[in-house]
TrEMBL record:
Cofactor(s) it depends on: Mo-molybdopterin
Identification of the protein by name: Protein-methionine-sulfoxide reductase catalytic subunit MsrP
Co-factor binding details: Binds 1 Mo-molybdopterin (Mo-MPT) cofactor per subunit.
InterPro entries documented for this protein: MsrP, OxRdtase_Mopterin-bd_dom, OxRdtase_Mopterin-bd_sf, TAT_signal
Catalytic activity: L-methionyl-[protein] + a quinone + H2O = L-methionyl-(R)-S-oxide-[protein] + a quinol; L-methionyl-[protein] + a quinone + H2O = L-methionyl-(S)-S-oxide-[protein] + a quinol
NCBIfam families: PRK05363.1
Classification lineage: Bacteria, Pseudomonadati, Pseudomonadota, Alphaproteobacteria, Rhodobacterales
Taxonomy, superkingdom: Bacteria
Signal peptide boundaries: 1-39
Assigned keywords, A-Z: Metal-binding, Molybdenum, Oxidoreductase, Signal
Protein family according to the UniProt entry: Belongs to the MsrP family.
GO molecular function, one term: molybdopterin cofactor binding
Subunit structure, interactors included: Heterodimer of a catalytic subunit (MsrP) and a heme-binding subunit (MsrQ).
């Protein structure tokens, strides 16, 4: 079945936290006036998305284990309602927000993005979410803030991968403020027209499509506006392998493997390999963010 990028009538229910009121109204209006499809985002790729099955059964979410199948097997235990997010640091409106309050006035839209893991596999994913810039503007970023830091929830009782292993939890990631404010950077609350599956980072995660997937931190409970570059999980574990920037770059290999091409999940045994694109194909939109930087050093 070919996925049609649109919200279906079944999604337009008040119970669906991942659609806010404005999107509900827009969706209802679109349904009644112009048929079921919302306007496709100019930021979406027209490549065919991977199947829901691909996207929800081949995951990295180490809090639930290290195998690709572990998140689908174990993430069901994560309780995502109620959910709150701490906002702190150099921001006008700090506080502990319920998820509903945090995202209440953010316009949810569909973004079909290429998603490239540093392990050299990729997928096409139809996310639902809103631009992080809209949230940051609502929170009021103060003049001294230069970076945004994110943390994932830590619940050993619900996350069997937390005990043992080498990661110093919580999983942490961060962006420079101009990266965070870029219109391609979204906070995703769903995929394929459904609320975010737990294994993909329910109820809310970051998506930065021009960067390796490890930047796209899942199940966020803390957003901090800070002056200095934040400590991040994979950069701390192996700085020579995982840079802070982590921009997709086919000319800078991982020390242990080439980044020149990638295995497109679901592409079949022999047909699944595709060339990796600079900035994952989003160079026209984002290359200017890095003008003057040496991307072999700032990898
Ligand atoms: N976020 C948390 N909290 N824990 C993780 O292990 N893995 C990262 C990123 N976000 C990870 C995370 C990595 S390495 C990738 S490639 C993507 O999530 C995978 O996202 P997906 O499972 O939705 O494809």
């Amino acid at each position: 079945m070919t996925y049609q990028p649109q919200f279906s009538r079944a999604d337009v229910t008040p119970q669906n936290l991942f659609l806010n009121r404005r999107a509900l109204l827009a969706g209802a209006a679109a349904l009644s006036v112009a048929g079921p499809a919302l306007a496709a985002s100019p930021y979406s790729t027209d490549e065919a998305p991977n199947s829901f099955e691909d996207i929800t059964t081949y995951n990295n979410y180490y809090e639930f284990g290290y195998d690709k199948s572990d998140p689908a097997a174990y993430a069901g235990s994560l309780k995502t309602d109620p959910w709150s997010v701490v906002v702190d640091g150099l921001v006008d409106n700090p506080g502990t927000y319920s998820l509903a309050d945090l995202i209440a006035d953010q316009p949810i839209e569909e973004r079909i993005y290429r998603f490239r893991c540093v392990e050299a596999w990729s997928m096409i994913v139809p996310w639902q979410g809103f631009q992080l810039s809209g949230l940051l503007n609502k929170l009021g970023v103060q003049a001294g803030a230069k970076y945004v830091a994110f943390e994932t929830v830590v619940r050993p009782d619900e996350m069997p991968g937390i005990s043992g292993g080498m990661i110093d939890w919580p999983y942490r990631e961060g962006l420079r403020l101009d990266e965070a404010m870029h219109p391609l950077t979204i906070m995703a609350t769903g995929l394929y027209g459904k609320p975010m599956p737990n294994q993909n980072g329910a109820p809310i995660r970051l998506i930065v499509p021009w960067k390796y997937g490890f930047k796209s931190v899942k199940s966020i409970v803390r957003i901090s506006l800070i002056a200095e570059q934040p400590v991040t999980t994979w950069n701390t574990l192996a700085a020579n392998e995982y840079g802070f920037y982590a921009n997709v770059n086919p000319t800078v290999d991982h020390p242990r493997w080439s980044q020149a091409s990638e295995r497109r999940i679901g592409g079949g045994l022999f047909s699944g390999r595709v060339d990796t694109l600079m900035f994952n194909g989003y160079g026209d939109q984002v290359a200017s963010l890095y003008a003057g930087q040496d991307l072999t050093k700032d990898y």
